[in-house]
Design goal:
With 658 residues, the protein is mostly helical. 55% of the residues lie in helices and 0% in strands. The protein is elongated and about 130 Å long.
């Protein structure tokens, strides 16, 4: 009996395999398909290259199909050949046509042929198909949390393609990774936390199948259609916007008028309570300034100019720039969506409504208080009293400060003359020779010219740039002065190098400047003196450890600044052999080395010259080259001892030493 069963099975199998025309589509049951597909490997490679874009669902595409593959699906109960209609016999061809969902879903298929996805598919190797969004067998209804188009899953479904920046770049998509931006949005926060499943997702704004580019007037995200698209969820705000000056302008065809996305963003839409939101209290002034800060736009639509600058100069604007979130911003006075011109009786800034508007923050505001100008623009025509009052104080400041400065200059000059008198009897103690003073003066003047002209470029709105804003072609003069000063500094560096190598005093100077173990001892002794652990400080020789540190830092900084400066100056030449990051690296080094050098000079060197001296108002050695015996004994006692010893040697008839 058992043998008869096996024999019958063998005959049946032989019939199936050898006579394919005997089994037709109408009579192919699912069990026949499952006889092969249920036993296929799950990681079958037969599907590779069949679909050009990655699947968007959780279902992994495979040739393995079991009786549970359609379980729970909206197609549960369907026959295999209901979808795979090109299978007319068993065995079927190795490669089948993609399933045509349009046989049943006629409307959706027609919409898809008009969409951007269909057009991209015809022009590029990426052809999105139904399975890429909905899956193949495990197609769940939108209400099922396992569905690929469930609201919380849909961003990942669309993101399976739209998060691939290289693919988007090849397709010319302007926003290469909208998924990353959407994950920052208020809409995603609501979905992620489960607060609501009605928050906007991709299809709520772009549509499901008839997805058109934003440049198409029929698109749901075309600029003129954006208010209606957002209004599906925000109907009250939509009506407010339509009645506003912005909404009226957009409806009239002025495409420069802001729509929802111009203020709130496209994908990364955040509420005003988020610090990074475009409409947060601190950032809303910057968002409005994108349009109202443009002179060209203001002239075109006859808008008042200078409104952004006048707000930023007001108390409200200054407080907002400090990060105050409670102070009044643009939306506080003009409202957020129903913005109307001051001439409109319904406007929040209409003269009759100002007291109420100001009263939101200032409950006791009077009518006079409310009419105090916020956007204060002082001119001789608009407000002559304020204009001349301003100039009165400008002139007064110049006269008073100038007179005080001149008085201090006279006092300083007198102190300088007195300091020179004390040097005449003891000029023998020469600290700096004439060539050394010339080098010092060239270095000093070129350094500060480079600082002023360099920082004027880097900080165009700071006091550094003021001298160049009062003269025609000031910016060009700034660049010229900077380059001349650079040449002077390079020449001074060359002069100093020749001096060190080519003169006896220069070689001795270099030798005395080199750090020794004595400097380490001097540091320890001097710090002990500062902390009250010693009765006196270190006994310095010709150069203290402070001066040696300054000099070595000067050498290092000069080499760095000249090298990077030449790279920046000769860009065509330098970029020819540097890596791609070389020129920007030189720019960074040049700037921060300049900051380091300037702050070091101010804190370290000028302190020594102007404060750490026994001859106020400053140490005149850099001008005269000489030091008094008292000054030398105080600051460089070891050097004075060496000088006195040398004098005694000469008096005794010994040959003078260097």
């Amino acid at each position: 009996m058992k043998g008869m069963v096996w024999g019958a099975a063998a005959v049946f199998s032989l019939v199936i395999l050898s006579a394919p025309t005997q089994i037709h589509a109408d009579s192919i049951p699912n069990s026949t398909c499952l006889a092969c597909h249920s036993s296929m490997a799950k990681d079958s490679t037969a599907l590779k290259g069949l679909y050009n874009v990655p699947g968007g669902g959780r279902e992994k595409m495979s040739l393995q199909v079991t009786k549970d593959s359609l379980k729970g699906s909206i197609h549960e109960g369907f026959s295999c050949v209901d979808c795979h209609q090109d299978i007319t016999s068993i065995p079927h061809p190795a490669k089948l046509k993609p399933v045509n969902c349009g046989n049943c879903h006629i409307t959706e298929a027609e919409e898809l042929t008009k969409s951007i996805h269909d057009k991209i598919g015809k022009a590029a190797p990426y052809t999105p198909m139904c399975i890429n969004c909905h899956g193949a067998h495990q197609i769940m209804p939108k209400s099922n949390p396992k569905s690929t188009i469930y609201p919380a899953n849909l961003p990942y479904t669309c993101g399976s393609c739209h998060s691939k920046t290289e693919m988007m770049r090849q397709l010319g998509v302007q926003i290469p990774n909208p998924l990353a931006n959407y994950m920052k949005s208020e809409h995603w926060r609501a979905l992620k936390t489960g607060k609501t499943m009605k928050a906007a997702t991709c299809t709520d704004c772009h549509g499901s199948h008839l997805i058109l580019p934003s440049t198409n007037p029929e698109s749901t995200v075309y600029k003129k259609n954006t208010p209606a698209t957002c209004g599906k969820c925000h109907p009250v705000i939509e009506k407010q916007y339509e009645a506003s000056i912005h909404g009226q302008a957009l409806a009239a065809g002025h495409m420069q008028a802001p729509a929802c996305t111009d203020c709130h963003g496209e994908h990364d839409i955040e509420g005003p309570n988020q610090p990074t939101s475009r409409v947060s209290p601190v950032n809303v002034r910057l968002t409005c300034a994108q349009c109202h800060g443009q002179v060209r736009l203001a002239r075109r639509f006859s808008l008042p100019s200078g409104m952004v600058q006048s707000y930023q100069a007001s108390y409200h604007g200054l407080a907002s720039q400090y990060g105050d979130t409670q102070v009044a911003n643009c939306a506080s006075c003009h409202t957020a969506h129903d913005i109307l011109p001051a001439s409109d009786p319904k406007s929040s800034i209409n003269p009759k409504n100002l007291q109420k508007t100001c009263g939101k923050c200032h409950p006791n505001a009077t009518a006079a208080f409310a009419h105090t100008p916020i956007h204060l623009k002082i001119s001789e025509t608009n407000s002559p009293v304020l204009y001349w009052l301003k100039w009165f104080y400008v002139i007064l400041i110049v006269v008073v400060v100038g007179a005080l400065g001149f008085h201090n200059f006279l006092d300083y000059l007198k102190g300088y003359r007195e300091a020179l008198k004390t040097l005449k009897p003891v000029a023998i103690y020469r600290r700096m020779t004439l060539p050394e003073r010339i080098q010092h003066f060239l270095l000093l003047s070129s350094f500060f010219l480079l600082v002023i002209t360099g920082f004027a470029l880097k900080f165009p709105h700071s006091f550094w740039s003021w001298p160049f804003k009062f003269f025609p072609a000031g910016f060009e003069w700034r660049g010229l002065i900077h380059r001349i000063a650079a040449v002077v500094m390079m020449g001074t560096a060359g002069y100093h190098l020749v001096y060190l190598v080519g003169t006896k005093r220069g070689r001795r100077f270099l030798k005395d400047m080199m750090p020794t173990w004595q400097d380490v001892k001097d540091v320890r002794e001097q710090l002990g003196y500062y902390f009250g652990l010693r009765r006196h400080g270190a006994r310095f020789g010709r150069f203290s450890y402070v001066e040696k540190m300054e000099y070595l830092a000067l050498i290092w900084g000069t080499i760095i600044m000249i090298a990077t400066g030449l790279i920046l100056w000769a860009k065509n030449w330098s970029t020819g052999f540097l890596p791609s990051w070389g020129w920007p690296a030189a720019e960074i080094i040049h700037f921060y080395e300049a900051v380091l050098a300037f702050t070091t000079i101010i804190i370290w060197h000028l302190y020594t010259v102007f404060s750490h001296t026994d001859k106020p108002p400053y140490n005149p050695t850099w001008l005269t080259g000489g030091m008094t015996k008292e000054s030398l004994e105080h600051h460089h006692p070891k050097a004075l001892e060496d000088i006195e010893k040398e004098k005694r040697r000469e008096e005794e008839g010994w040959e003078p030493r260097d």
